[in-house]
Amino acid sequence: MRRQWRLVALFILLLLVFSLNQNPFRQQLASPPPIPTSFQVERWRQQLGEKIIRLRQVIPTEKKVILVPDEETFLSAIQQWNLKRRYPILIEDDHYTPRFLNRFQPEQVIRLSSMKWNCVCYK
């Protein structure tokens, strides 16, 4: 009987403490570091970003997609880009490729075969 009263008293005490928002288990968090008043971007990053924006505005993106099976073929396909045209080149997979094609809506999809070299090594 005495034990039950102790549990009831402990429950009431905990209920009062938590209801007063005086959580004894909560730690005081340190205040976040101050935000710097002056944020200066490094000059080379800014120049690179501006150059990329200018190139994207000047070089048109064709409405075709090239699908490649591996990295070697990807590098070979990207060599065909120039300052007059560019187009997406995807390493084909079953998950992301259909999603990209559905979103990009290309007029033409070209699938390239692998360009891996079959190397025969002689000793």
Summarize the structure.
By secondary structure, the protein is mainly alpha-helical. It has helices at 2-19, 43-58, 71-78, 96-104, and strands at residues 64-68, 89-91, 108-111.
Q: How would you describe the overall organization of this protein?
A:
With 123 residues, the chain is mainly alpha-helical. The chain has a domain at 60-111. It has 4 helices and 3 strands, in the order ααβαβαβ. A 3-stranded parallel sheet has the order 2-1-3, with helices on one face. α3 links the parallel β1 (64-68) and β2 (89-91). The longest helix has 18 residues, at 2-19. The chain is elongated. The mean pLDDT is 82.
Order of helices and strands: HHEHEHE
Widest sheet: strand order?
A: 2-1-3
Question: Number of DSSP strands?
Answer: 3
> What is the makeup of the main sheet?
3 strands, parallel
Provide the low-confidence segments as ranges. none
Q: N- to C-terminal separation?
A: 91 Å
**Number of helical segments with 4 or more residues:** 4
**Would you tell me the overall average pLDDT?**
82
Q: Structural class, from secondary structure content? A: mainly alpha
Approximate helicity band: 40-55%
- What does the radius of gyration come to? 31 Å
The global form is elongated
* Percent range for β-strand residues: 5-15%
What is the multimeric organization of the chains shown? single chain
